[in-house]
Amino acid sequence: MQHNSYIKTLAKIPRRVWRLIFRITMRCYTYTKCYSYKRLPLRRWIGPFVGVLEQYPPRPLRLPTHYLPARQLKQYPTISIVSASLNQSEFIERTIKSVLDQKYPKLEYIIHDGGSNDGTHDILKRYETQLTEWCSQADKGQTDALNKAFVKSNGEIMAYLNTDDLLLPGTLQYIADYFQRHPNVNAVYGHRILIDEHDHDIGKWVMPAHEDDVLHWVDYIPQETLFWRRSLWEKVGGQLDDSFNFAMDWDLLLRFREAGANFVRLPRYLGAFRVHPEQKTSSIMACQGRNDIERLHERYHGRKISQYEIKKNTTTYLLKQILHDKLIRIHYYFRRSLAFEKFK
Predict the structure, then answer these.
(1) How far apart are the C-alpha atoms of 244 and 250, rounded to whole Å?
(2) What distance lies between CA 175 and its chain's CA centroid?
């Protein structure tokens, strides 16, 4: 009897350890994507870091030195990138330069402006010879503007970039090379760097390997790092759902998943997401964003989903993110003197 009791006690240890890890993670993890390290000091050191848009005080943006030289390819598939703009004169030029400075030989870059009155037109005119096309006309919102731009594109590989975000150097060559070497993959994304309005580094999302099941609960895929094949785009209808004005990218990802898309998370920082007071992510999350998210939950789960259910079903993924993030940070710490250069 004592022997059986001892075995039962040992069998309970892994479950108790798991429960402890789960509780610690729940204390560090909140679903909302608007918290900073100042409000969540425990999370600053432990994680998970996805979902936190300000992780440490601003510092110069640095990238691994091997990002800077362009990767030379034998063939260059056409890449179409579109942007929708409205009164983003403070940031749009930096966005445009981050795309054009890629020096990718077969690039389509199309910008649809919704009728800005803040000097955006002057900036677009300065770059019009380098842009595939740009226009300024009224639209029904960001999603409608993106659809209008996508209709004019022809690239084999597609993406869209918000006009306050950046592509990191070498991204397009890296993406084109990966798609060519992996014809069975039709959607990819990578790690994200968070920047402030002055282009200073304020955080990083180091993403673990892709897990399809997590997409039904929450969208952690960094939008500015997402690229997909045109064949997949046409398979799901060839447009964004303009009934969504916040979660249109999550809706697209879910439609990709239903169409059997093969997602891969690439082991590289591909884009920079800008955090600033006026961004849509912060200003409409509490109303329109929440409504969009609830719609998608009800569509795929058939009912409203509680925050506890989301946390419970994404905890394993977040634990992997913590581990992956720590390993990457340790790796770069020991290579810091040789592996990074200041990004200008």
Answers:
(1) 10
(2) 15
Burial of residue 59 (number of CB atoms within 10 Å: 0-12, 13-18, 19+): exposed
Q: How confident is the model at residue 235 (pLDDT cuts 50, 70, 90)?
A: very high
Instruction: Tell me which residue has tokens 């226009």.
Output: 135
**C-beta neighbour count of 239 within 10 angstroms:** 17
* Residue 306 CB contacts under 8 Å (≥ 6 apart), including other chains: none
| Unique residue bearing structure tokens 């040789």 | 338
Q: Which of 21, 32, 7, 13 is nearest to 281 (CA)?
A: 32
Q: What are phi and psi of 99, to 5 degrees?
A: -85, -50
Question: Among 91-95, 226-230, 233-237, 282-286, which stretch is predicted with the lowest mean pLDDT?
Answer: 282-286
Please give the structure tokens belonging to residue 186. Answer: 């039709």
What contacts 341, CB < 8 A, 6 or more positions away?
A: 62, 63, 64, 65, 68
Say what the pTM is.
0.86
Domain-wise residue ranges, the chain: 53-342
Residue bearing tokens 């509780």: 23
Cα pseudo-dihedral 261, 50, 209, 315, rounded to 10:
-100
Rg of the chain taking only CA atoms, in angstroms: 21
Interatomic CA distance for residues 40 and 55, integer angstroms: 9
How would you write 139-201 as a 3-class SS string? CCCHHHHHHHHHHCCCCCEEEECCCCCEECCCHHHHHHHHHHHCCCCCEEEEEEEEECCCCCE
CATH 3.90.550.10 fits 53-342, yes or no: yes
CA proximity to 340, closest of 60, 58, 59, 65: 65
The proportion of the chain whose per-residue pLDDT surpasses 70, expressed as a percent, equals: 78
Tens digit of each residue's pLDDT (9 = 90 or more) over 214-225: 999 999 999 999
